[in-house]
Write a structure and sequence with these properties.
mainly alpha
Length: 68
């Protein structure tokens, strides 16, 4: 499925980040962590980035390491 989406121009990493960002704006960090099975500190980081607006989110993204 991933290959088919790539052929259609869907950028999977960006789509995942966008989905997490949206969830972080709608759910408390504890619920986000429990639902996705992630550490609470990561859920809090996503929530802070979402609450901080575009500038905070851009800063967070710029500090990530590329894994591919």
């Amino acid at each position: 499925m991933g290959e088919r989406l790539r052929k259609l121009g869907v950028r999977l990493a960006e789509a995942r980040s966008t989905a997490l960002f949206q969830l972080a704006t709608e759910l408390p960090a504890a619920v986000l962590a429990r639902t996705l099975g992630i550490d609470i500190t990561l859920a809090v980081k996503w929530q802070r980035a979402a609450a901080g607006g575009c500038a905070a989110y851009a800063a967070e993204v710029s500090q990530r390491r590329c894994t591919h």
